[in-house]
Amino acid sequence: MTNSATGPLPASVLEALGRYDTPTICNAMEIVAPERRLIGYTTKPLVCPFPDLPPIVGYARTVAIRSVLKSSLPAEEQSRRRIDYYEYVGTGHGPRISVIQDIDGPDVGYGAFWGEVQSNVHKALGCLGVITDGSIRDIPQWAPGFQALAGSIGPSHAWVHAESFGGEVRVAGMTVKSDDLIHADRHGAIVIPLDVAAKLPEAAELCGRRETPILEIARSPDFSLEKLKAALKRSAEIH
Fold it and tell me: Quick one: pLDDT band at residue 2, thresholds 50, 70, 90?
């Protein structure tokens, strides 16, 4: 059973953001928050086994994992920590997205935290998907509709365990704090500052209007360089 507190943004804003793919949200961010043009999104490639799933928008649940080294905690403490972790994941602003950094350094992805069990458990806890630089497995048995962006796909979980949770993590070049608003799809993910989130749908529509005259001529059998120049001029005049 999960406990989803009322988020800092209306659900209608998250629903509106979910109508656009992540590249379009990145384009819109260039309009509403140009100072973030070089930060706040994934910059390294991630594997997406479910590319046809729609974009996900939710609040981050951050975790650091490792798998090369066995946990030093006694079994009883490990069990308690696991319950604490699930309570963290299953409470707070919803919907949620799990963002997991693998801290095994050169051995990142050595063991998979994510598979059939964790995808189904996290879905039940109110998560929409996971973004991790670690590995995942059990692709055919994965929870239906649960999105995944991962550093790799592998067969074993080795000694994988949650080392810490609730702190700042960095995944594929994107720095994330607990409760950050995340937008993600097959292309990658981006952190959306809460103070600009409501402005993004309008900015995304503006981006689309600016692209329309260029795409129309580029796809036209009557394409010419002169017509492209004219289309670029019309695009620049759209505000």
Answer: low
